[in-house]
Write a structure and sequence with these properties.
There is one protein chain. The protein is of the alpha/beta class and about 400 residues long. The protein folds into two domains: about 10-45 and about 310-405, Aspartate Aminotransferase, domain 1, CATH 3.90.1150; about 55-305, 3-Layer(aba) Sandwich (Aspartate Aminotransferase, domain 2). The protein is about 35% helix and about 15% strand. The chain contains twelve helices and 15 strands. It has helices spanning about 15-30, 50-65, 80-90, 110-115, 135-140, 195-210, 250, 280-290, 295-305, 310-335, 360-370, 395-405; strands at about 35-40, 100-105, 125-130, 155-160, 180-185, 210-215, 240-245, 260, 270, 275-280, 340, 345-350, 370, 375, 385-390. The strands form four sheets. The protein has a seven-stranded mixed beta sheet, with helices on both faces. It has a four-stranded antiparallel beta sheet with strand order 11-12-15-14, with helices on one face. The radius of gyration is 21 Å and the shape is globular. It starts with 15 loop residues before the first helix and ends with a helix. It binds D-malate (MLT). D-malate binds near residues 42, 43, 109 and 187.
Length: about 400
């Protein structure tokens, strides 16, 4: 008899964004005249930077010649892209990352979901609450957790509440943990972590022989020069942290798919007998077995993000979204909402009015204003009573959405 992986049956609800899509689609079917504005999933709306398109067209030309045609590329990514990343994303900011520590992939969602595979099932996982659901769900699927309680909190996961009181950066856990997921700039709260705050985590990980999985998918949105873009800007982080980055939000690649993960040479995990095992070869083994690399055309497009024109165009696109975020912050504050985030991240995190439940507020906003957002409860129990709005949309749509908020 074939049996099912029962860990999957522990998962509480459907994945958050398809559920939101389903509710929005049902509303659209019932109200075909409603002009729905989508500020739910953080999906980009601006076209790809011209420099990226030019590079990708050239790459298609390469592929049409016998001399420059490429079949399977290196699973870890082409050197031209890994070199550009090491130089521009790290060396230029004083962080040392070598090209051969970079693994190119098709998305930070896959990488943050897959990386846990190389760790033992007995490890205690710590996540912030609220949290990007992929970190939790993939650990549930792997069997690293027990069942969920009525708040959707899984047994054997340590939840670290992030509230306005701690500026949405968690305190160190009081019980020992092994695998720590941090995301800054944060999805969903839009909060950022200072170097001093990250240093505390790096020191904790060193002292407890833990590993930090640091999701920096939104680093390009940082406006404040004092905020670190990479955990490797923090001394000692190479010994304890893996970092994830993505071209999705940075350069409009949500539909193109390109990201990368950094696994430093000196990072180790331990056998049950306490013998240190370098993780880079382990991740390399996993990556080469399950992944055949990102297409040459895509990687040429990603490389162009680092050209002079590419950088200028990317900055222009990001400034469109960050102007949206500033406008949203201002409009919502004027309307009396308590508003967080949106200064160094493309997400606004607001308190629902009069203690309303976050799904209740989702329904109200959809029914009355025809605006889609994301209920905070979808990101964890501590997200209840909050609501996320994404700044990824055309400025005129965002302006209109804010006008509709005024009519709620
Ligand atoms: C989000 O809206 O949280 C993101 O778009 C999800 C993702 O990047 O997978």
């Amino acid at each position: 008899m074939i049996t099912v992986n029962e860990n999957f049956l522990k998962l509480k609800a459907g994945y958050l964004f398809p559920e939101i899509g389903r509710r929005a689609a049902a509303f659209a079917r019932a109200n075909p005249k409603a002009a729905i504005i989508r500020l739910g999933i953080g999906d980009v709306t601006e076209p790809l930077p011209t420099a990226v398109c030019t590079a990708m067209r050239q790459a298609v030309e390469d592929m049409s010649t016998a001399e420059r045609f490429c079949g399977y590329g290196p699973e870890q990514g082409y050197e031209f892209l890994r070199d550009a990343i090491a130089e521009n994303d790290y060396r230029a900011r004083g962080a040392e990352v070598l090209p051969n520590e970079i693994f190119i992939s098709d998305g930070a969602k896959c990488d943050t979901g897959n990386l846990q595979e190389i760790f033992g099932l007995e490890n205690i996982v710590a996540v912030t609450d609220p949290v990007y659901p992929v970190y939790v769900d993939t650990n549930v699927m792997a069997g690293r957790t027990g069942q969920a309680d009525s708040f959707g909190r899984y047994d054997k996961i340590v939840y670290m509440p992030c509230t306005a009181d701690n500026n949405f950066v968690p305190d160190l856990p009081s019980e020992p943990v092994d695998l720590i997921y941090l995301c800054y700039p944060n999805n969903p709260t839009g909060a950022v972590a200072t170097k001093e705050q990250l240093k505390k985590w790096v020191d904790y990980a060193k002292a407890h022989k833990a590993v930090i999985l640091f999701d920096a998918a939104y680093e390009a949105f940082i406006q404040d020069d004092s905020i670190p873009h990479s955990i490797y800007e923090v001394e000692g982080a190479r010994q304890v942290a893996i970092e994830f980055r993505s071209f999705s939000k940075t350069a409009g690649f949500t539909g193109v798919r390109c990201a990368f993960t950094v696994v430093p040479e000196e990072l180790v995990a331990y056998t049950k007998e306490g013998k240190p095992v370098p993780l880079k070869p382990v991740w390399n083994r996993r990556h080469c077995t399950k992944f055949n690399g990102v297409s040459y055309i895509t990687q040429r497009g990603a490389q162009a993000v680092y050209s002079k024109e590419g950088q200028k165009q990317v900055r222009q696109i990001i400034s469109i979204y960050m102007k949206n975020a500033a406008m949203m912050r201002q409009s919502l504050s004027k309307l009396g909402y308590a508003v967080y985030g949106g200064k160094n991240a493309p997400y606004i995190w607001l308190k629902t009015p009069n203690g309303m439940g976050s799904w209740e507020f989702f329904d109200l906003l959809l029914q009355k204003a025809h605006v889609v957002g994301t209920p905070g409860a979808g990101f964890g129990a501590a997200g209840e009573g909050y609501f996320r709005l994404s700044a990824f949309n055309h400025p005129d749509k965002v302006t209109e959405a804010m006008e509709r908020f005024a009519c709620l």
